[in-house]
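Title: Comparing notes on inverse folding

I've been comparing how different people in this forum approach sequence design from structure. To keep things fair, I'm posting one structure and asking everyone to reply with a full sequence. Here's the target:
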């Protein structure tokens, strides 16, 4: 039988404390990380996104007319989708409650401008949109998407227009 002394007790406490710390670090490393948002480009596997700067890189890769992608929150409650058109991207977001249909984001200028139709490379109409709904930089698009998915609102000055089925 082992004889206990002050030194043995102190050594045992240090050892068990070290093991406890190692186990805690291991469990922390294995624990699922919080993923603020998930980006999925059409036809691609979803990837975690940790902020609007990272999101801007993904937006810039959606570079062919008619191509699209979607950003969702970790719980799939909020989403924002984009479609590439000549000269920029349009952004659509989910509604809530009885008004849960898609809504198009209108830029800070507030003016809808002229109505346009964009065609995909296959010649089919990709989308109908107004000038004020076209965003030209990946950074602006990423910021809009991030605000909506993470905060449930748009940046100051932007507004929403309900998507008209058969027209947009």
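Reply #1:
Here's my take.
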């Amino acid at each position: 039988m082992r004889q206990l002394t002050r030194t043995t007790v102190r050594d045992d406490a240090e050892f068990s404390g070290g093991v406890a710390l190692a186990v805690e670090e291991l469990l922390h490393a294995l624990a699922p990380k919080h993923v603020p948002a998930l980006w999925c480009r059409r036809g691609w596997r979803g990837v975690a996104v940790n902020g609007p700067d990272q999101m801007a890189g993904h937006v810039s890769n959606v570079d062919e007319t008619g191509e699209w992608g979607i950003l969702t929150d970790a719980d799939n409650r909020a989403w924002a989708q984009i479609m590439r058109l000549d000269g920029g991207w349009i952004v659509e977001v989910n509604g809530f409650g009885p008004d849960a249909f898609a809504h198009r984001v209108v830029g800070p200028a507030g003016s809808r401008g002229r109505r346009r139709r964009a065609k995909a490379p296959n010649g089919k109409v990709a989308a109908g949109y107004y000038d004020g709904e076209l965003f030209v930089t990946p950074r602006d698009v990423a910021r809009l998407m991030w605000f909506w998915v993470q905060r449930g609102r748009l940046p100051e000055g932007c507004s929403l227009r309900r998507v008209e089925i058969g027209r947009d």
